[in-house]
Amino acid sequence: MDDNLSKRLNFIEEDTLKYLLSQVSNNKSVDLLLSSDHMMHLGRDIITDVYNYISKYSSKYILIREPYGERVTMTDGFLWASDRFENKFNGFDLIDYKISDSSTSHKEFRYMLFKKKK
Question: Which of 38, 42, 64, 69 is most deeply packed, by most CB within 10 A?
């Protein structure tokens, strides 16, 4: 990674739900939460909580890239917990999206930008 970029970004590798819960519990926030190809691997038992804590943790924007649809299927051992994301982040509006194809499958992916409601 470019040195200038690495000084500006904070990558975290930790249990998603535990991390978000700890940050929200400690009144921490970020301006932008970026998630790419991550939520599709989270189980249905925690995904609603993850959406809720993301909504509380991000103070301005959420940018995600995820498969788009309503199906949940097993592919290569991963749970594809795809959702229609328009109403998943409480207090945020979808303001832009771009459709892209996956390089490894025939699934549709979307880049989706959400902005906190005023």
Answer: 64
- Rounded mean pLDDT of the chain? 83
87-114 residue pLDDT tens? 889 999 999 989 876 666 656 778 899 9
Tokens of 37: 């190809």
- Between helix 16-25 and helix 47-57 the angle, nearest 10°, is 40
At residue 72, the pLDDT reads 46
- From the centroid of its chain, how far is CA 95? 15
Q: Dihedral through CA 23, CA 24, CA 27, CA 31, nearest 10?
A: 80
Beta bridge partners of 33: 62
